[in-house]
């Protein structure tokens, strides 16, 4: 009986250990990437446009699956109108006119696709490339930490009184609702702007927490894939694939959650700077913000950040691989149960952040899985990270470290149609100790 009891206890311990490991990174009893995502959008053919969207949409309008829509120039949904998009609808952004779609403050978008029939925004070029068109911008009435309200007028080539009026965002309503984006793909967005900046695939500025954002994929964005300025959003089941710049950037006092989401980077499409999976900032220019207001605060849980590299060591030496996470001054990040695999290093804190208990309690990494990174957590421009390793390496944080190939770490990231980026838990040997080879930078 004693032997039987021991066997049962060992089995339960193994089961609980496996379950605990499985909780790290993106989770789900099934691969939730199936059916609605597309990892080879250049091989997808869409019908020729049958309708044109241009100028301002001032009345509530529905886009139907039976049509294919050409987005021409800067298109605005204004006058508190609602743009409803049926599941399966395709909207094609025009390359020559630098097409973009902006949902202005007070207006709404209801783009509620379904798993087997997602809504697609893509490029109209026969040979599609990152930055072919602008992107999708949603402006809301939630607070930011800027002085006064903000404007995205710099994103549009033709400036006039109408554009300026439609470009404003921000207010006092954290519960502002801008609509629904669910089962949506945004491909080849991020057009370069005349001022040297880029559109984001999806820009959320002053968007409130009653807005529903679930199962959204941004692929091959030339600028940031997802960018959030201020507001208070919760984003579930996001996918950023091969963005040139940041996968997820939060700025200007955003109070947001990023949950069960994926970023896959390629060293050969990333910009030389500012290309991170997660970039948490409170400002770009400190003169623009009011420090009496809340700085950016992000809760990030069950994320998987993976660098899709064939030769990690060589590509690190060539300077093609950056850090996965960057945290700026006056910003807070609570990141847990997440996977960071194949970066140089895993995390960098801005050099304006003083390393003391007060600041480190605002930047949390717990129950993390750091895999195959050249170094883990550093302060910018400082190669000595002993204090940080001692802090985050404390067993109380339950962080684990490993050095495994991606093929051994994830279930099937090489599958051409249905990759699976959940952890392959039966192949992982993890510990609480920092691998000295990973510590070396």
Task: Describe the structure in your own words.
This protein is mainly beta and 441 residues long. It has one domain. It is built from seven helices and 30 strands. The chain has helices at 2-22, 161-166, 312-317, 357-360, 386-392, 406-409, 436-439, and strands at residues 51-57, 61-63, 68-77, 82-85, 90-93, 100-103, 108-112, 119-123, 136-139, 150-151, 168-169, 179-187, 202-205, 212-219, 226-229, 234-241, 248-251, 255-265, 278-280, 297-307, 325-327, 332-336, 339-341, 347-349, 363-366, 369-371, 377-379, 400-402, 410-412, 420-423. It has a 26-stranded parallel β-sheet that branches. A two-stranded antiparallel sheet has the order 10-11. Strands 29-30 form a two-stranded antiparallel sheet. A hairpin with a 7-residue loop joins strand 29 (410-412) and strand 30 (420-423). The longest helix has 21 residues, at 2-22. The termini are far apart.
Outline of the structure:
The protein has 441 residues and is mostly beta strands.
Report the biggest beta sheet as strand number plus sense, adding barrel if it closes: 26 strands, parallel
Low-confidence stretches: 7-21, 429-441
Alpha-carbon distance between the two ends = 53 Å
User: Quick one: how many beta strands?
Assistant: 30
- What share of the residues does DSSP label as strand, in percent? 25-35%
Structural class: mainly beta
Helix content: 10-25%
Number of separate structural domains: 1
Total helical segments: 7
Broad shape: globular
The overall average pLDDT, rounded, is 89
